[in-house]
Amino acid sequence: MSRPDAVAGEAVIRPYREDDRPGVADVCLRTAAAGGDATGVYSDDGLMPEVYALPYVEYAPDLAFVVELDGRVAGYVLGIADTGDFIDWYAREWAPGFRERHPVAGPPTGHRPAYTEAQLVADGAGPERLRIPELDDYPAHLHIDLLPELQGRGLGRRLIDTLRAALAERGVAALHLGIDPANVGARAFYERLGFHELRSSRPDAPRFGIATR
Ligand SMILES: CC(C)(COP(=O)(O)OP(=O)(O)OC[C@H]1O[C@@H](n2cnc3c(N)ncnc32)[C@H](O)[C@@H]1OP(=O)(O)O)[C@@H](O)C(=O)NCCC(=O)NCCS
């Protein structure tokens, strides 16, 4: 008998577990170059996950959902219900360790990403960039990533629906997200799902929002 949540072959959406942590970090790295593989782009492959994935599962494991494929993590959506509270937590609990591990950008790798390692290290060092003007109306935010073999099969839509439902259940009215301006596929995806561009969105830092129901 097939499982009710099984789609796209063996891909299954389920709640995050503590032992998913390395898998989540790996998916983050492999989708971090404007949606493509960022392995080797920065001097430390751990940097991207340390900024964009691991603090999320550390702070809100109950709002993280993974896609499991053949026993490994191949995608996720990571949510934060109250970005203001997350900013306070990040500054207090996450940023000090991050700054200790990554006091400065590492040596050049031969890649020249538009999002430089200096910028990435600066973004990891503190959370104030997350304090967008629309936080009162769009308090939640998310990150979503799927490995290439799972893209274009409806799982992104299902992950967003899963997180929106979990947020709505907690009484959170709306969420926002930021995208890399080079990630045209992600932009098309969010627009297709009904996200709208926020007032504070800029060409170099696009931002979108949507109600949770
Ligand atoms: C962006 C991403 C999460 C989308 O998930 P997905 O599973 O590929 O998208 P889905 O198959 O659920 O698509 C949902 C809808 O969006 C549309 N869509 C998705 N990607 C699209 C694209 N690149 N261009 C146009 N439309 C697109 C689909 O056609 C679909 O429309 P429909 O439901 O009306 O048929 C996924 O492709 C991904 O992880 N990409 C790499 C990492 C990344 O860019 N993450 C986002 C960072 S902000």
From TrEMBL:
The keyword Cytoplasm does not apply. Pfam families: Acetyltransf_1. The keyword Cell cycle does not apply. Keywords: Transferase. Signal peptide: none annotated. CDD domains: NAT_SF. This is GNAT family N-acetyltransferase. It comes from Agromyces luteolus. The lineage of its organism: Bacteria, Bacillati, Actinomycetota, Actinomycetes, Micrococcales.
